[in-house]
Here is the input.
Amino acid sequence: MKKLLMMATAMTLVSAVMAQADGVLNLYNWGNYTSPDLLAKFEKETGIKVTVTDYDSNDTALAKIEAGGAGFDLVVPSANFVPIWIEKGLIQKLDLTKLPHHDNIAPEWMNVDYDKGREYTVPWQWGTTGMAVNSSVYSGDINTSAIFMDPPPELQGKVNVTPEMGDVLALATMYEGGQPCSEDAALMKKVRDDLLKAKPMWMSMDYGMEEKMATNDVPASLYWNGAILRARLRNPDVHYGYPKEGYIVWMDQVALLKDAKNVDEAYKFLDFIMVPENAALISAFARYANGISGSEAFMPDDMKTAPEVVIPEEFKAAGHFIPTCPPKAQEYITAIWTELQK
Amino acid sequence: MAAAEEQVVRETTRRNWLLSAPALVVLVFTATLPFVIVLVYSFLTPGQYGNVVWKFSTDGWVGLVMTRDVFDDTLGWADAHLTIIWRSVKLSFATTIITFVVGFPTAWFIATRPQRSRPIWLFLITIPFWTNLLIRTFAINEMIRNEGLINTVLMRTGLIHEPIVMIYSDGAVLLGMGYAYFPLMVLPLYAAMDRFDMRLLEAGYDLYASRLSVLWRIVMPVVRPGIIAGCVLVFIPALGAYVTPRVLGGGKTMMLGNLIEMQFGQGRNWPLGASISITLAVITLVAMLIIIRRAGRETAQ
Amino acid sequence: MKRFSVTTMPGFALIAICAFAVLYLPILTIATFSFNAGKAISDWQGFSFRWYEIAWANTEVQGAAIRSLIIASWATLISVLLATPVALATTRTAKFPGRTFIYMMINQTLVVPEIVPAVALLIFFAAIKIQTGYQGLGYLILAHVMWCIPLAYLPIRARLEGMDLSLENAAADLYASRWQTLWRITLPLLMPGIIAGAMLCFITSLDTVVITEFVKSGGQDTLATYMLGQFRRGLTPEINAISTVLLALTVVLLTGFFLLTRKRD
Here is the structure.
């Protein structure tokens, strides 16, 4: 009994020590997406300790914040979710006078459709979604969505399709000749039918391809560029392709929550990440580009010339941002996805 | 005399309720009340980006058994749901059998060690489970993938020439599930076996019974509560499992847990997720009750 | 002639030993690769303490690991304290009004997949969080207790059902009070069941990822949710290191605990 009491006291003490100190900031971000070097540098310059809490999907993050009371200050939504956050009144308009480095945002990323003039968000990282193929298994053209929609014989049963509803549906729609968020019923029906036809030829619908492609467990996959760069660094046979029918450009950005408690600290952080060297730190971690001008000079060498990061000229036009889909389009997408996953 | 008996019964009842009160209070607040919320949600309309709109709707329940084709607008039976349910039941059943077949001897082994060393054995068997499930599942993946431990050993010793593809298969999922739910079978079995009077075995053998019939007729009935507890603790959570099937199954085949989780995630249909969960809960609760009632009746005999 | 052993059953020892081996294989894999010099969670490239150094510097992971342990310890303690009286009240006693009801109530969290109480508690606790402004670990501990109670209850009950009543009857005959019987006879006999239940609780709490993911507030990642968050973007090898450290720590702690309690005998 005494031992139980001793244990209980010890546990209470430890729990008390875990209580937070002053000068803190609560960042709610994707898992494995925040550079520890960045946070260390930030703490050294400002004395503010940043606590990172992870989420694994836009939907989870939205659900948690909407429910309320979670105690976060900053969140990092993807582009097509930003209008949803704004509409629901969950993030607040930024006071640009508190962000002296705001002009560092690269001109092509300043006036995006979902946040003109960047009044709500600050760019974090951006990337593309395309096809990754191991050239020792298939040496044909990899710059096409046919890799997963209509796999060549060498790749049948060997393609992984990431279970990301938005990405997969957008690529499939563009493959069939439409635009992402299409409301054309006939087109979407064809998308559904072709996806269902292709599914038996897929190997899996899984994450973790930077591991699995490097070890050649998975020869081909629909995946994100930064992860594939990391895979290529370990296995030179892995190549990244930009589907000519249309590939996806995405971006994640930092937003200030309406009920944030540490507002001043948040502004300091937001300004901090718009300094080129700091933005480069973010990129060096996950190997994705950022939206700040001048950061290229500070990026790691393998990123400066990597075809995964620097989009080759001939493919630039085929890149599409996925907008926030209107209700009818979203209904199609969700219905097709549900059927596909079953 | 009857009045005194009644008095005793009343006192016993009151005492039992008092004993159970703290647990019940905690559960009412953390489990029952939230479940009521889930029940309410199953009758609401799905919000556009997840969550719910506070408008009454039976779509959540209709969607359980029927699906509306979004292009033709026709209503059809949701046989995909049935397939998933059946798949999950088969898998959970298989997991229960596997954990039992391996777990019973293991529990017996520990229970028949000398008294002093038993805690050590128990300790040893639970240590692996103090590592997180996700990382253990990834470790299993490491072992069975094409260039993983098993394939490398087999290829080096020349037993095979091509790696055996084990990842993303039903077998892999079964291995992972058996692994994950193993202690849930062993510990209750051990708890029941630990106090088993070994002299009963001696008596059985003295009467020239074979090992098998001693096992069947003497051991099993006595440790039956442990068997039931173990099976319940494995089968039911296995039905709702989704981490292991996800990681080891490759995500192409959906289980009940995945189906429900999808509704609260990218499927954006919380009411449907709620209705499926409630149905699952009710069915399992009823099944549990039936099993316990029957077991109780037989022990009383 | 070989001595006839009453307790051996053919093949049982073999299966048990194999089970132990299979159980430990993944753990050994994790521990071995935590010393891997290479970046992958595979591909042995030489011995190195690299990941331990990184884990040492990674306060996020450390915090998550410690938090997991704290929550698991509290949840186990509370669950066992709550479940034992209920097990005593509902087992081996004559039928009393409401016994089945209590039984169903206790086991209600078993019968649903984790996502359900996760979402339900998200909504429920969020309302409370907004009202009270309290955001401590209490919610997570409570959520884990809810999840663990049946796991503590069932093994204790199984143990109780198999127990021999004669000792307790003897005590009653010797005019021992109910309390004395409970304290000195029933509970010590019940110990294996209680320990089994406690272990199940602890293990399960460490692994509870969905509930924790939904109920947690800022800065409350557990090891489980930390790894879930990494799921999409690839696990980092320091996970191997931190898991090994955690394992070693728990083993040391519990060995110490065991040794302390054994001295009593």
Observations:
- The mean pLDDT of chain A is 88.
- The longest strand of chain A covers residues 121-134.
